């Protein structure tokens, strides 16, 4: 299959592995930013093919995982109200809040629906004029254009029964938080290709210059990741720090300008809380004042809703790359996909879920 089999070719992978072994002479810690990349690394055993000098660190690249518990609690509160249709992508339903999750609301009779696009919610709103339709707008820059378009279209159509609960986070501020941490141990980053299809690669250049760390934008298949690792190792061994683009088949330096313009028209940059990490300045988006009528937090007055995170869950340390999932004492015992303590065990892009699915028998 084009763009699949050709990026999983065993002989090509072997050549990249040999090139990495030939290039590396000292220890390097490389962080992949995207949870989808983490799953590919663990699923295909990419980390096990690398020299012992190369340590892959799993970063905060799962938007579901970093959605703060207070927003989950707000979602649960809103979804449980009468005359509300709460719409979400499927991987949000099992993310635990303080006392419940969206799946629990659904099991108790709440109208919680899985959708595949926020634009689907506009049809739901038009078909149910007597109910409030809310979409849980979670994601990095990748999903922001569609979420912005849903609000833009709702206003254009004059829909008064549609709103979104916003939990948008941005990648560059998260990387800066990792780089500026006293616990920093990252020498280079594998950046998420799908984010850069929207935003381009330019926004990483200030980070590269400030922290003298190389960043390679990569795809999600085994050959994408092996090539990106080789590019990073080559930079590090040569003492360079640059932004390089492995994912040239989709990513351009300037990204998608029309998508960026739509995002800027609907959203504005704000401080944002990250689950297990804390508040990162200017690391998220919120609706602009002219679209405040479509802000579910304001419409349902849930500003005071939300409780503390689990003290047992160590997902914050996993998301910061300080520990690997299997190093958490609760992993695979008190914390499983059926009974998760944190979102990293639930999300399709969560590092804990990847280790549980592919490595739990060898983790302990």
What does this structure look like?
It is a single chain. This protein has 364 residues and is an alpha/beta fold. The protein has two domains: 1-311, Rossmann fold (3-Layer(aba) Sandwich), CATH 3.40.50; 315-363, no CATH class. 40% of the residues lie in helices and 18% in strands. It has helices at 10-23, 35-43, 46-49, 63-66, 69-79, 102-107, 118-127, 144-157, 171-180, 193-199, 205-211, 222-238, 257-266, 296-299, 315-319, 351-358, 360-363; strands at residues 28-32, 54-58, 84-88, 111-114, 132-139, 162-169, 188-192, 215-218, 243-245, 267-274, 278-287. The strands form two sheets. It has a six-stranded mixed β-sheet with strand order 4-3-5-6-11-10, with helices on both faces. β8, α12 (222-238) and β9 form a beta-alpha-beta unit. It is globular. The mean pLDDT is 93.
The beta-strand count equals: 11
Q: How widely separated are the two ends?
A: 37 Å
Q: State the fourth-level CATH superfamily of the largest domain.
A: HypD, alpha/beta domain 2
CATH architecture of the largest domain: 3-Layer(aba) Sandwich
Rg, nearest Å:
21 Å
Q: Strand-residue fraction?
A: 15-25%
What is the H-and-E element order? Answer: HEHHEHHEHEHEHEHEHHEHEHEEHHHH
CATH fold assignment of the largest domain: Rossmann fold
Mean pLDDT: 93
CATH class of the largest domain reads: Alpha Beta
Give the overall form: globular
Secondary structure: elements and pairs:
Blueprint: H1 10-23, E1 28-32, H2 35-43, H3 46-49, E2 54-58, H4 63-66, H5 69-79, E3 84-88, H6 102-107, E4 111-114, H7 118-127, E5 132-139, H8 144-157, E6 162-169, H9 171-180, E7 188-192, H10 193-199, H11 205-211, E8 215-218, H12 222-238, E9 243-245, H13 257-266, E10 267-274, E11 278-287, H14 296-299, H15 315-319, H16 351-358, H17 360-363
Parallel strand pairs: 1-2, 1-7, 3-4, 3-5, 5-6, 7-8, 8-9
Antiparallel strand pairs: 6-11, 10-11
Helix pairs in contact: 1-12, 2-16, 7-8, 8-13
